[in-house]
TrEMBL record:
<feature type="region of interest" description="Domain IV, binds dsDNA">
    <location>
        <begin position="333"/>
        <end position="451"/>
    </location>
</feature>
<feature type="binding site">
    <location>
        <position position="162"/>
    </location>
    <ligand>
        <name>ATP</name>
    </ligand>
</feature>
<keyword id="KW-0238">DNA-binding</keyword>
<feature type="binding site">
    <location>
        <position position="159"/>
    </location>
    <ligand>
        <name>ATP</name>
    </ligand>
</feature>
<feature type="domain" description="AAA+ ATPase">
    <location>
        <begin position="148"/>
        <end position="277"/>
    </location>
</feature>
<dbReference type="GO" id="GO:0003688">
    <property type="term" value="F:DNA replication origin binding"/>
</dbReference>
<dbReference type="InterPro" id="IPR001957">
    <property type="entry name" value="Chromosome_initiator_DnaA"/>
</dbReference>
<comment type="similarity">
    <text>Belongs to the DnaA family.</text>
</comment>
<keyword id="KW-0446">Lipid-binding</keyword>
<keyword id="KW-0963">Cytoplasm</keyword>
<feature type="binding site">
    <location>
        <position position="163"/>
    </location>
    <ligand>
        <name>ATP</name>
    </ligand>
</feature>
<feature type="binding site">
    <location>
        <position position="161"/>
    </location>
    <ligand>
        <name>ATP</name>
    </ligand>
</feature>
<dbReference type="InterPro" id="IPR010921">
    <property type="entry name" value="Trp_repressor/repl_initiator"/>
</dbReference>
<dbReference type="GO" id="GO:0006275">
    <property type="term" value="P:regulation of DNA replication"/>
</dbReference>
<feature type="region of interest" description="Domain I, interacts with DnaA modulators">
    <location>
        <begin position="1"/>
        <end position="94"/>
    </location>
</feature>
<dbReference type="InterPro" id="IPR018312">
    <property type="entry name" value="Chromosome_initiator_DnaA_CS"/>
</dbReference>
<dbReference type="InterPro" id="IPR024633">
    <property type="entry name" value="DnaA_N_dom"/>
</dbReference>
Length: 451
């Protein structure tokens, strides 16, 4: 009997079991899982079943899909006997308070200037052809603020790293000399603060903040200044004061100054006084390099073929690329499933560009036709070898190409979720070791998705 499986007292309750399960997950360094399962609450123990309350059906299915094996094995460990988990939907269930991350988990922020993100640094930025000039200019500005390129104006499409570079400049200047007053905000925030200061008659304070107490001004998304005449007037004076004092000004936008609708001519010409540089969409190689760098930061062992798969699927936006990786990493660390192309395809079904939509029934029909077996037989309990193979392939493809959970797929084949899980694992393994199997699966997949 392991230490966690102390005999339960007669009053053994769902809470006690649940507490022990949480301890167990913490000991196994699965804190990550706690956030995801934290919306469950223990309700009661019914014979060999621990009944948990969940907020809705979607959440229940998702849990079942991703955590049942982990949760049931943990439950068996703490109860020291096999037990099952059951879920009951309890609408409006609040997260358990004991699952907030401990305060020590937060990195102390020190006195970093407000709104500055310590994660966005030059070290975490991947320099490539698509952003080389912008990155070099940003580095030059951070080395001699106010002297090199003033202002520096970085423009480009959404999610390509403009804000990251802006923060990298501010972080580097501040880290080298924390007495430097770095002010970062978006042009919308500037507008809002301005309006509020006018309304509350606090303009002297506003001007002090942006003109007297600012050494480096970082303004994100300046395009939102367009057509805001009063704010533009105020910003014009702010800009002039800082520029004359040799303070660094760095601006980002999604377009060049000449294209910002409703931007006054005098601001346009000032924004063009220093250096205007753009960030382009990343090439395939850059996307792979970004994924690999982020994987290292996430502590994820990312096989090249998975990096290539994601980089091929998400082409225009680094934010989405990063989001995809974080999702793969999170679900991998929770489910402990190996990071393969199939795993990534399944995890990212909702975010990758949609392919032809297929459902389990269509898959059953197509697979049956392919293996020349009756589709109905896939749903029966017949163990004939060819049938069993076709059934397993159909389960695997259902898992990969549809949003159905393991129990939902099981229901379509009159099998329970654990049969589906082992069929999927088996086909995944075969796919990797057997070239003929890989070809069969690719052919079927191409037929089903129209690709
Ligand atoms: N070259 C890169 N190296 C590493 N990470 C990058 C790179 N480019 C972008 N990113 C990451 O992509 C995400 C989006 O970047 P960022 O917020 O800087 O985009 P943006 O260009 O400011 O977009 P928007 O115009 O929508 O505000 C960030 O998490 C950022 O760290």
């Amino acid at each position: 009997m392991n230490a966690l499986a102390r005999p339960l007292p007669a009053s053994s309750s769902a809470e006690i079991l649940w507490e022990r399960m949480l301890d167990c997950l913490r000991q196994d360094k699965l804190e990550y899982a706690l956030g995801w399962i934290g919306r469950m609450r223990p309700l009661e123990v019914r014979e060999d079943t621990l009944v948990m309350g969940v907020p809705d059906r979607f959440y229940r299915d998702w849990l079942d899909d991703h955590y049942r094996p982990l949760l049931e094995s943990t439950l068996a460990r703490v109860a020291d006997r096999p037990m099952e988990l059951a879920y009951e939907v309890v609408p409006g269930l609040a997260p358990a308070p004991n699952l907030q991350p401990p305060p020590s988990a937060h990195k102390p922020e020190g006195a970093r200037p407000p709104r500055m993100n310590a994660r966005f640094t030059f070290q975490t930025f991947v320099v490539a052809d698509s952003n080389q000039l912008a990155a070099a200019a940003a580095a030059a500005v951070s080395d001699s603020p106010g002297r090199a390129y003033n202002p520096l104006y970085i423009y480009g499409g959404t999610g390509l790293g403009k804000t990251h570079l802006l923060h990298a400049i501010g972080n580097k200047i501040w880290e080298r000399d924390p007495s430097q007053r770095v002010v970062y905000l978006s042009s919308e925030q500037f507008t809002n603060e301005f309006i509020e200061s006018v309304r509350e008659q606090r303009m002297p304070e506003f001007r002090r903040k942006f003109r007297d107490e600012c050494d480096v001004l970082l303004i994100d998304d300046v395009q939102f200044l367009g057509r805001k005449e009063e704010t533009q007037r105020e910003f014009f004076h702010t800009f002039n004061t800082l520029h004359e004092l040799g303070k660094a000004i760095i601006l980002t936008s999604d377009m060049v100054p000449a294209e910002v609708p409703g931007l006054e001519e005098r601001l346009r010409s000032r924004f063009s006084m220093g250096l205007i540089t753009d960030i382009q969409e990343p090439t395939f190689e850059t996307r792979v390099a970004i994924l690999q760098k982020k994987a290292v930061l996430e502590g994820l062992d990312l096989p090249d073929e998975v990096a290539h798969y994601i980089a091929r699927a998400i082409q225009k936006n680094v934010r989405e690329l990063e989001g995809a990786l974080v999702k793969v990493s999170a679900i991998h660390s929770l489910s402990r499933q190996p990071v393969t192309v199939d795993f990534a395809a399944h995890v990212l079904k909702d975010v990758l560009p949609t392919r032809q939509v297929v459902d389990v029934e269509t898959i059953q029909k197509e697979v049956a036709r392919y293996y020349k077996v009756p589709a109905e037989a896939l749903k029966e309990d017949r163990r004939h070898k060819a049938l069993a193979h076709a059934r397993q392939v159909a389960m695997y493809l259902s898992r990969k190409l549809t949003k159905a959970s393991f129990p939902e797929i099981g229901a379509r084949f009159s099998k329970d979720h654990s049969t589906v899980i082992s069929a999927v694992r088996k086909v995944e393994k075969l796919r990797e070791s057997d070239a003929g199997m890989k070809r069969e699966l690719d052919e079927l997949e191409a037929k089903l998705t129209g690709e």
